[in-house]
Amino acid sequence: MDWITIFSTTLKSAIGVETVLYGLAAIGINIHFGYTGLLNFGQAAFMGVAGYGLAVTVTVLGLPFWLGIIIGLAAAVVLALLMGIPTLHLRADYLAIVTIAVAEIIRLVFRSVAFKDVFGGSDGRRGFSDGFYAMNPFPEGEYGFNLGPIPLFFNHRVLWVIVVGWLLIALCCAIVYLLMKSPWGRVLKAIREDEDAVRSLGKNVFSYKMQSLILGGVIGCLGGFIYGLAYGSVQPDVFGTETTFYLYTMVILGGAARVMGPVVGAMLFWALLVLISGVLSEAVAAGYITFITTNQVGAFRYIMVGLGLILLLVFRPQGIFGDKREIAIDAR
Hints:
This protein is mainly alpha-helical. The protein has helices spanning 3-14, 17-36, 43-59, 65-87, 92-110, 116-119, 130-133, 156-180, 183-200, 205-231, 241-254, 261-286, 297-315; strands spanning 125-126, 142-147, 150-155, 233-234.
């Protein structure tokens, strides 16, 4: 069994593009769910409108890259307003249902044949990342180091995405830390515990929820930018509901209402998937495992990770770094 390749791939995935983009989106979910108690299951929609905002601006309208970034951010704010105004008065479970519906509506609009000239239909849009890579300070080549016998190297394009992504994660975590230590953040936590008590103190609960939804959506939409820039394209089905489920998994895994919880959760989630996939693939190829085939490894790894998460929720529902009190929400 090629353990060096398995560990190299696992370590690279722990800091790679997938971890970065899901980590950013999970930070936004943590603001919604962890700190405010909002069951927003439409986070993938924020990623989608940002990615498509950038793609359509550059490829269809022929406008500059940075204007596409601004339009993508503005689209996330508009989506938060459109989603929040009619739904934030709903209780937790109804809010979850409505946000899932909104995310699915947006996904279906993106892949609609009627808007194929704009969004590209099921094929999506590509060819909008040249402006981003034009700013790449790393000359063409491979960059990295050897961690003992384990090589950790990235090409110049991937490294540029990773550097920008981790800088964004650091910035977002710093913003969340400072905000949640402020009076504004303490009001959000109070809303999560008992919004009626907060309302009795004269606070505008709806306004605070809306601010939380906008902030978490804007931070989450950065993951959509990273996805589009890293892969050079956006497709509607990437921003499906299962993406939001993955994000909640990462938040719970790392610990809700913890600044670094979503980031650690994203790292562990992808590292576990890649590690299990590598070990299973090698074991099946060597004949050590015979009850599954190589084609079934991808599905089986999700089963194993799912079982592990179930055990985590049974024995430590607050996550690795979380506090059990932080995941109790007022669902009345």
